[in-house]
Structure formats: structure tokens, C-alpha cells
Amino acid sequence: MKRFVLLFTIVSLLSACTAQVMDDCVPQDSLVPKDKVFGLDLPRNAVDPVRLNVLFDEETAAELERMTSQDGYVQLPQVKSFSSNGIVRMRRLFPEAGRFEARTRAAGLHRWYEVYYDTSVSITKAATGWIAIPGVEYVELNPSLHIVGDPVLVREVTAPPQTATSGPYPFNDPRLPSQWSFYNKGTVASSAPGCDINIFPVWERFTTGSPEVIIGVVDGGIDYNHEDLAANMWHNPEKQGDSQYGYNFAADSYTINPENHGTHVAGTIAAVNNNGIGVCGVAGGDAAKGQPGVKLMSCQIFDGSNSGSGAAAIKWSADHGAVISQNSWGFEHESETPKSLVAAVDYFIKNAGIDENGFQTGPMRGGLVIFAAGNENTNRSGNSYEAIFDVAAVGADYRRAYYSNYGDWVDISAPGGDARKGNQVMSTIVNNKYGVFQGTSMSCPMVSGVAALLISLYQGEGLTPDVIERKLTESATPISSFNKNYKMGAGLLDAYRAFAGSGGQAPGTPTMLKASVKSNNISISVLIPEDGSGGTPDALYIYYNKVNFSTITPDLMFAKLYLDGMAPGDTLETTLTGFDFNTVFYLAAAAGNLSGAISDLSQRMSVTTRFNTPPVIEALGSTELTIKPSEKGSLDFKVYDADGHFYLIDFKNDTPGIYLDTLVRDCPKIVANGPEIASGSYSAKLEVTDIYGAAAIQDVLITVLENHAPRVKAAIDDKIFSGKERTDEIDCRDFFTDDDGEDLKYSFSIDNETVIAMSGEGGRYRLTPLDYGYATVTVTASDVRGESASQSFRVLVRDVRSNVDIYPNPVSDFLYVRTSSAATASLKLIDVLGMTVYEKTLTITPFEPAKVDMTAFPSGIYTLILNMAGETTTGRIYKR
What we know:
By secondary structure, the chain is mainly beta. The chain has six domains: 2-143, no CATH class; 151-159 and 170-499, Rossmann fold (3-Layer(aba) Sandwich); 502-608, Immunoglobulin-like; 617-701, Immunoglobulin-like; 711-798, Sandwich (Immunoglobulin-like), CATH 2.60.40.10; 804-879, Immunoglobulin-like (Sandwich). It is built from eleven helices and 51 strands. Strands 8, 9, 12, 13, 14, 16, 17 and 18 form an eight-stranded mixed sheet that branches. The protein is elongated. The model is unreliable at 1-5, 18-30 and 78-83 (pLDDT under 50).
């Protein structure tokens, strides 16, 4: 009885409050305990307008379960007002978990409920209304979710792939050379050599992944049929066909709907390696050796405009075998981490890889939850719960990407791309395609992939998530010298050092260091020493600073130069960029191995960088364009930067039909498509800005002349067909003209399509008679602006066996007489008594037949006599 009363109290209070949008029941926000309701400090448009999460105490949760139907929704038939208080439905946030239900309940997840309201209810007031209800421990407004990425900068890659069958590339995937985040020689725009995750030696010396490792990709749906992903998709042993690849939490269905973002993230983790197709994945296996990669489980929380619970997806993935939860998503506004998400993260970390009896069945005992730090350029995040492993993003130059969040809650950084500097991350997108994105969404799966490789190698009894986290952070490359104002975690992800650790015998010291300067670019040459075993070191490091130095310290900036194909005694020559302008820099070189053993520094030298030269826009011809309304024209330019800096091209123009074509980036075109532009003159600007802000501007003027409508230049003759066999042709270009010189478009209409048909194109039409009769054909000539001119001609198809057509017969009112050619004729009608009842001389033509009014004639039979040019035609007419 106590439980019923408790539940009745909940429903009654809610009913009373929501009926008046809870205006009389809700305490002021300032009086609401902050430890009771989450999200009240968020903008109202930043929370789900119809859904709350409510945490009940054990007794109330038990009563709710007793009133839950088989479909999982709470039914309260005892309280009739429940259905009218604004609550549409209510169910557990973390559904009943079968054999894992006991541990679900032990974690208290069974006490979390989703409560859905109709749109008439103020969700914020509904949330605060819950705190007065017995049995309610906590209430959450749901912050709106979003994918962590910048969809504006998503671009499908259509250029032919490069070749990855020689040089430093260990696999034959044709787009691997474009994956600079795996191997960066400094050839990518605005890049520093060595700014990558150092993955190649891991593939060569340790592992490429294991199918025992399952990664739950909480994101948009993965394209599970993608040519470069299908072999590494997880299969749910409880499902078949298209239902076996994960779960769609946005649609409450096992049907995964593929989407670009989730597919891109999945490709970075585990696109199939060495299959001669597309890209490589960090943990994608080695298809040529028959070694599968890690498995991708699609936990879809974004499906079109719908979203599902990330917390529920994380928990579900733990119960289905995942040991890494990959999360490139976040909240629309910075906030604390919601408690329901904290509960799911704690559950995953504790229970992943473990069966319902507490025994380890997966490759690791417990799970690792990895989140993208977010792209809001702030030091706050809703994913900053301490147990979450957070990943920030750098461009190709060790520096924080302009969008990346940062702060002391970040654990590590990885390449995420920086479109402002000309580099993004390539991976898979839907329908067997490939594209480039940027974002912490892209850096996050690189860390998930390396973590999966570590678990693949060290899997076994006793391996725990903290071991993996420690290996990732302790091996990271310090990058604080590049990011003095931002906290980017332990540093840049270094996959090889996470496996090999640090140390080993240091190589010899480089010699013959030389440098020259152009703008802020420093050209380096240095002699390569031997490594400790007499071979070639793995890399040379160029250290630099604005203050003279004698030892390697964390405040030194550096470039790591790979030595592929080189030998001791060779001279390495390269150019480094990105230095401050008009500044003295001190330089020294050292040789190192991939585990971090570094030689002594070479002799030091100093250089002074120069000023920045703005980009140049060179007009390849005029900067003014005049076109007719029917024409398409362009202004052509060549763009270059003497300093070799990456530049952005912008086009200032608000006129539809005038646009910038950068298909050949250093030869942009301003294109004007006359048919889309109203007549007049338009000014626009082409602006080219290097990454340091120096700009060149070119003004252009585009004029579209006045349009002249088409006009008729000759009349189309009427057509007479004597019989249905002969055809005829007309060329509309002989009858219409356009003073603008346009090639006109022609159309036609026929008022009686049983008589004649027309076919053809380009203004040449064939006329084919179909039946005896008369029709009018109208031809219209139109220009590109839709202005037009029309004219009509008449078509007559008649029976060649007679020179005269008399119709209709029988006749009710008017009798017509048509001749095959123009003539003057006498026409007489005689009734059955021999009396002449009509006699007249008429002018008759094929298109203007004689018309005899017989309306007042009595019914009966009449004889018609037509005398024309000495010939007489007779016939019998029946009057109705």
C-alpha cells in the first residue's frame, strides 16, 4: 500500500503541475538545489524540449517496474490523470539487460528513467517540478547532442589516389600517402615533419590489430557494406543480415543507417589495411597476410535529425563485448558531464570484457572510454569527467588546431587537421567513397585505434584500462613548446613509443649543420651520422628556440625528419616553415631512434628570419568581363606566394551566377554564367590571404548586357497534306531570330493531335499526318532568359481521292464545303421534290471552307451540285 501511495503522489503532483505548465508548483531557479537538477544553467534552446532523465530511489523504481508492459514503457492504468498530465511515455533509460541485468541493477542503472513530454509542457519547469516528489533523487535536462566535427569542411576526395607500393609505405592502400597523420614528411601544407602518430613501425614490428578487440563507435551509423570496412565489422551473434552490425539508438532499431561522420571515424580506426583499396586504419589488420583487424560495432546515436542516448549506447556496447568506447560527439553547450553519462562511463570501465559471473572473457578486464575534447575553442567541455580519456586536436604542425578545446582535463592530443592551414584528415565515407574532415572527431579515433593495437598485443588475463592509458600518456611527445597558452594533455600521441618505450643506444651526433633563410622559412642541410649499430638513425631532429641553448629541454621546439632510403654520410636537405618573422632563432641537430634515444646536439648556429611577403594575384588578361545574357565567361588569374606559405582564397560576391572556380587552386577563375544573372554591372573581390594574415585583393567588374527577346523573321506557310503518306519538315531557325545571337530553344503545341504529329530537335521538326482533318500548330522560340516569340500555322490533311470535301454528312446545322485549292464556285441544293432550296456563288479555300446554314431546312435528303471551273461535283446530303 505504501508503494502505491508513493507512486500516486508522483503522478498527482505531476498532473497538477503540468496542467498549468507548472507555474504554481515550480520554485524559482535560484532556489532549486543544483545537486538535484542538471542543466538549468544551459540556454533553453540547448536542451531536449520533450525529454528528461529522472533517477528514482529503489522502492519507487521497483513500483514503476511492476507497472511496465512488455514493450518497456510504464503503464499506469490506476491513475487516469497520468495520460493527460503532459507525459507522453516513460521507460528505463538503460533497458532490461538479460543476463547482465544483475550487474546493471548493482550499478543502479535500472533506477534511471526517460520521461517524454508533449510540446505544450515547459521542459525546464517540468524538471524542477520533480524535485518535490518523494522517491526522486535526481533530474536531468538533456543537453542537445552534436557530432564533434565541422560539416562545412567535409569534402569528398575525387582526385586519383597516389601510389603506396614503394618507399616508406608498409601497405599497398592507394590513399595511404595522403594520410599525413600516419606519416608526415613535411610535404603537407603548413606542416612540421614528424607531426604524426608514428604508426608504421608498430605495424611492421608489433601488431596490426586483433579481431578479439571490439570497439563501440558511438556516432552516426557506419557504412557496414563499405569496401574498406566490411571485413572489419562486428557481427552480433544474436542477429542476422543487416541487423547484426550494432544498434540504432536514435531509431530504437537494429537497422543501422550509414552516415558520413560515423563512417569516417570508423575508417580511421579500422579501414582494412594492405587490401589495395582506399585508405588504411590504425588497427585495420593486414589483408595480404590474412590478418583481420579489430572489430567495429556501430552504436548509432545520430540518424538524420534524430538523436539517441549516448549513455545508453555506451552501456549497451559493454554488454555486447566492446572494450573501447569511441565517442566523437558532445553537447551543444559546455557543461558538466551529466550524471547519467557518468553512470554509463563507470559501468563500461568496470564491466567491459567481463561476463555476468565476473570472469574476464574479453581481451581486457574493463573498458576504456575515449571522447573527442570538442571543437568549441574553449577550455570547458561536457565530456570532462575524470574517468573519460579526452583527446584534443593538432594540425600538421604540432600546434593546437584553431577549433580544438583544451584544458587540464585533456589527456592527450592527436592529429585532427586544420583547414585554415591546408590540412585535413582522410578516411572512408559512405557508398565506397573517401573524404577529408577536420575536428577532434578525427583525432579521437586515432587514439582509439592505438589503444586497440595495445590491447591486441597485450590482451589477456589481468590487462586493465589504466595500463593502456598509462602507456598512451607516458609515451606521448611533449608539444607544450608549440602550445604555450594551451593545455593539450600529455602531448602528441606516439604509437611506436607506446609499444617500445623509451631508450636504446643513441646514434652519433650530426655534423655540418647549415641553414639559410627566406621569409620565415629556414632551409637546413646536415650530415647524417651512424646509429648505435652502424646503420642509419630513424630520424634527425632539428631543435630551435629564440633563446640560445646547450641541452635538449621541453621548451625547445623541433622538427622530426625521417631518413627513409638514406645512409650515414648522406646530406639531408629540407626546408622548415612556421617560424616567427623578423626573429633570431638558435638551431641545433640531433639524431634519434623511434623509441626516443637522442644523440648529443650538433654545433649550434643562429639565423634571423625575414618579413612576410603577401601573396600575389596576377591577372591573366583583363579584370573586367562583358558578356551577353546567353554567354558564360571567366576572368582568369594566377595566385602564388613567394614565401611558399599556404593561403586561403576568398571571393566577395553576393550575386547568384557569379562564382569562384578553384579546381586548379593556383589558377582560380571568376566565372559568370549569363543566363543566371540579371542584366547589369557587378563588382566583386578576389582575396588571397596567407596563414599569417598578409593579403592580396583584386577588384573585378562583370557586366551582363541587356537581353533582347526573340522575334519572328518570316511566317511559316500553312501545310496541306493530300493523303496521310507524305511528310514534311520545317526548320524553325528560318522563321525566328534573336538579336543577341543566341541559339534559341523551340517548343510546339498542336490543338488537334489526332491530325498531325511533330518530332525532332534543335528546331528541325518532321510533320507526320495521322488522320484527315484540320489542326493549328503553334511554335515558340525561347532564349535563355525565358523571353519568347510565337507564331502559328495551319495543317490540313485531306483525302486525295476527291477534290472537294463535304462535311458533316448527315448535317444538323451547318454544312461545309472545302476545295483542294482556292476557287470560285456555284453551289446549289435541291430537295426531293426537285425544288432548288439554296443557290449561291461562293469563294472557297482549303482553310476557309464555304459554310451553308441548313438549320431551318426540313429533315430529309438533298442533292448538292457544285460547279467549279467547268467541273461539276454532285452529292447526296442527309439533313437530320
